[in-house]
């Protein structure tokens, strides 16, 4: 199979990118402070269909703050959020997408694995992306054609990082995705462990950072991963759908992988899905 490059070739006005990156970074720092001040300390999740889909006071506070700042700075660009917008229309030239607390169940329990995710997106994919990792005091940021940085330090994947013995995935809202057990078994046979850690944004960010070989998401919303996909693309990772076709934000599942690992992990995924059908 052939892995296609997912690096975008669609320039955006440099001034817009610079301002968007600066504002997004400020918002990520604000969110990190709020999350660290409140995690596991009396937050009140709303009852809902699934404990994996909780909404907390912190989500609402960060959403309001994000909307207020972005609307003031970019009045013509719409803002879409996990907690308020059931879908993201694709007819605007640009849009902001935000997940105020990605990994809400972890956050509510005080487990140190959740993130704030924000991205500016156009028709070709993320233009600017930031992911705040509060517990590790890290702000990851990227912009199209400008690379990825972690707390200001450039990050670029190396060839050896495709040899990681870990792959991340996440549950769907109803539980394991079709073929997930088979996927885990195939990875284990190859000597690779599969981890389900509870944050789609951080799962993809770990690929960009070179900590894991790949992240496989059977389903997702744009606000879950757009910020992290920006990081991954700019660090040199490959972004594919479940058919192995290159796309920035594919509608048919998501594989983000170090280039050397992409073919093998895609093969496990496709085989697992075929076995489940």
Can you walk through the features of this model?
- By secondary structure, the chain is an alpha+beta fold.
- Helix content is 36%, strand content 22%.
- The protein has helices at 14-38, 57-73, 104-109, 180-189, 200-209, 222-235, 259-276; strands at residues 79-81, 95-102, 115-122, 125-133, 138-143, 147-150, 153-155, 166-169, 193-196, 214-217, 238-240, 254-257.
- Residues 1-8 have low confidence and may be disordered.
- A hairpin with a 3-residue loop joins strand 5 and strand 6 (147-150).
- The protein folds into 2 domains: 14-155, Fructose-1,6-Bisphosphatase, subunit A, domain 1 (Fructose-1,6-Bisphosphatase, Chain A, domain 1), CATH 3.30.540.10; 159-276, D-Maltodextrin-Binding Protein, domain 2.
- The longest helix is centred in the first third of the chain and has 25 residues, at 14-38.
- The chain has a 7-stranded mixed beta sheet, sandwiched between helices.
- It contains 7 helices and 12 strands.
Features:
disordered N terminus, D-Maltodextrin-Binding Protein, domain 2, 7-stranded mixed beta sheet, 22% strand, Fructose-1,6-Bisphosphatase, Chain A, domain 1, 5-stranded mixed beta sheet, alpha+beta
In short:
The protein is α+β, with helices and mostly antiparallel strands and 277 residues long. Helix content is 36%, strand content 22%.
């Amino acid at each position: 199979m052939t892995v296609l490059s997912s690096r975008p070739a669609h320039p955006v006005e440099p001034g817009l990118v610079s301002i968007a990156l600066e504002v997004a970074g400020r918002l990520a720092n604000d969110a990190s402070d709020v999350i660290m001040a409140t995690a596991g300390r009396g937050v009140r999740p709303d009852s809902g269909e699934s404990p994996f889909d909780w909404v907390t006071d912190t989500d609402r506070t960060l959403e309001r703050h994000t909307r207020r700042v972005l609307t003031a700075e970019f009045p013509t660009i719409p803002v879409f959020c996990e907690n308020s917008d059931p879908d993201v229309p694709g007819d605007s030239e640009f849009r902001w997408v935000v997940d105020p607390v990605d990994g809400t169940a972890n956050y509510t329990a005080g487990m140190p694995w959740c993130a704030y995710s924000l991205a500016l997106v156009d028709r070709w994919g993320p233009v600017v992306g930031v992911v705040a990792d509060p517990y590790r005091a890290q702000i990851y940021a990227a912009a199209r054609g400008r690379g990825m940085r972690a707390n200001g330090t450039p990050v670029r994947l190396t060839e050896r990082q495709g040899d990681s013995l870990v792959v991340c995935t996440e549950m769907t809202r109803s539980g394991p995705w079709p073929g997930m057990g088979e996927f885990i078994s195939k990875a284990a046979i190859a000597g690779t462990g599969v981890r389900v850690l509870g944050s789609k944004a951080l799962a993809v960010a770990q690929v960009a950072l070179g900590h894991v070989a790949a992240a496989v998401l059977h389903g997702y919303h744009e606000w879950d991963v757009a910020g992290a996909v920006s990081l991954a693309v700019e660090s040199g990772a490959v972004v594919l759908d479940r058919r192995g076709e290159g796309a920035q934000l594919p509608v048919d599942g998501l594989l983000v992988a170090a280039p050397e690992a992409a073919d093998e992990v895609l093969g496990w995924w496709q085989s697992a899905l075929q076995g489940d059908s």
